[in-house]
Known about the structure:
By secondary structure, the protein is an alpha+beta fold. The protein is built from 23 helices and 28 strands. The strands form six sheets. It has a six-stranded antiparallel sheet with strand order 13-12-11-16-15-14. Helix 19 (559-613) packs antiparallel against helix 20 (617-647) and helix 20 (617-647) crosses helix 23 (768-778). It is elongated and about 215 Å long. It starts with 10 loop residues before the first helix and ends in a 6-residue tail after the last strand.
Amino acid sequence: MPENIAAKGGKQEGQLLQTLHDYAEEIGNLGTWTWNMETNKAVYSDNMFRLFGMEPGEVEPSFDTIPKFVHPDDRQRLLAGAGQLKENQQPILIGYRIIRKDNEVRYLTNKLKLVRNSNHERVIIGVTQDVTEAKLEEYASLSLKEQTVQQTNDKYQELISSIDEGFGVAEVILDDKSNGVDMRWLLLNPQFERLTGLSRELLLSGKTVREAAPNIEDKWYDKYGDVVRRNQPMRFEEYSPTFDKWYDVYVFPTDAPELKHVGILFQDITERKRREQQQEYLLKISDALGSVSSPVVIEEIVTNTAMNHFKADRCYYCEVDGDSAIIRRDAARAGLSPVVGTYPLNSFVTFKNVVDEGQPFIVDNVYTSGMVDEHLRTLCIPFQIISFIAVPVVKSGTVVGILCLVQSTPRDWMQSEIALAVETAQRTWAAVENANAERALRQNEQKYRTLFDSIDEGYCIIQMIYDDDGKAVDWLYLQVNRAFELNNGLHDAEGKTIVEMAPDIEGKWMEIYDKVAKTGEPLRFEESSDALNRIFSLYAFRIGEEHERKVAVIFTDITERKKTDEALRENEKQLRMLLRQRDEFIGVASHELKTPVTVMKAYAEIVQERLEKLGGTEDGKLLARLNKQIDRLTALINDLLDTTKISEGQLPLNPEPIDLNELLQERIEEIRRMASHKFNLKKRSLPGINADRERIGQVITNLLSNAIKYSPADATVTIISEANCNTVTVSICDEGYGIPEEALDRIFERFFRVSNNAMDTFPGMGLGLYITAQIIQKHNGSISVSSKQGEGSVFTFTLPINTDLT
């Protein structure tokens, strides 16, 4: 029997009471106990131990002993009841399950009461009863549905109080068309107030939502009315301007349709939606810019997209060039003046200082902000720039751009908006830079591709391939141009190796390209390939870094050229041999002809002289004509001999001091006797020159003979002599037929004669001017001609005054 609290009696009476107490516990299946709250001392009756499946005294009694055996699902309820008793004098009854040592589950009830002992200490007395049989009978009498409902209700209450989501049950009020127009909350969990900011007490006071919170948007009533009208659940995401929040909402019918009750489970998804919207916005910009290559169009797309996303009135991007901000595109709402133009940053000291630091410049109201100086304020107000974010983009310590978002009214910019503006500015700059770089790259690529595909030479980029020992054994064609195949016969080479395409390729090519790849020294060379059956002219040079082992090769198939060159060399060899044989023949023939012609000349002169003495005048004239032809033949033989000497480099010169004017006069007189032409010598004082008198005389005679040969009989031949600084010059001008322009460059060639119907009537072998030019050149002089057909020709030769002709 627990400690006697109410009264004290005699020993005999006490024993009787103890027996009675034990008997009552036994037949009532009871256990009694006490717990002194002040001393924390507990006392259990013997049967109390037995109720928990233990022998009396098996454990030290304490307040914590009972909870250890209580079913986990019921433990909190027991402790909560005991805690409640500490503050309440009224007895309480608590039911719970225990799990005994043998794992048997029993149902117990605890009747607890708080009293004070003789020491005025607080003591809880308890009577515990095992009601397992009665509980089982009670459960047996309940239907399965009732048990389920009870358990569900209990769990339901616990659930709605413990979840993080907001939850409530409401009665939806419909109009006569069954549209939702209002609602009345019947149940709200604690999280509802945290997620909406609305008072639970006010909303559960019986008032409708329109009465308690009149600013709630009508769209909510419409959706709840749809759930009631269709008797179907609905899930949706919706934004509430009233709360400036996004909600994920699940609405479902909870009771009979006629009650129009709905359960509403919701959560605040504002941050998630903001992130999604920001990501969607950034993706929208990225997608829009994906195919854009113009910096101006990029700025136009970004500013319009940003203005709409931020719900701003204006957005523009400035390109910073030195101390100037250049605005090329300005997205603005209707009615706002454009701000496109160039603005000096130095004029706005505060703004420039903040921007130079690379930090966003945030102004909520230009009228009141201390960050705005008077100059900047004066510029902003006419353009209705009342609130703005200016985000500088800094690269390598220099501001390269500024993104500006503008509101025409005061605005409190949120940190999330500022961060997104910074991201927008960075992406805008990157897009503009990429566009500029891509445009430059495209221009370079176009130039490169045009050159690459337009050249006749083959071009390729190869990458050397090595074996395990580091020896070059192959190469891969990375890129080839259109002329590649024409020059080496290899088809579709890109992506293939040379060994794959020409297995018999010579090893020398590996060595050549390997050396270029490793040393970086370019190489120009000619080489043949039996495997490709071609001869190439090549220029190879390394591209990229040494470890990349890449070589570019520009090459031309010169096989046909080489064959042609070989044939030309052979032909040239044959020609030289023929020319040598011809010159030898001319030399021999001229030499052999000269003696008999000389003898013939002598005999003809003797005969002519005798005939004239005998009075044979007509016969003498015939012999005079014969002598004249012999003289021509002699001159021709002399020309041939001179030509042979010139070709052999054996033309002798006998230099001596001569008076060129005197020599001119002499040769003119000789020619005058044989011609009917007029001769006009315009001579100036000349210094003496060192020259071969006979050869220079031969030159003068040849040029005078040409002048009279190719001009009419009564024409005038003008001879001009003059001295210059270190030279003397002679010009012989005729009034003849002239020389065609296309023949001027070849007039001094050996055996060259002008093809002209008028000139074809004049005899000659085309040697006179050739010999003339060669004699002048041997004297270190020069000769030239100028002529117009029908107007005559001018031959001019120049000789140095002092020259060593040895």
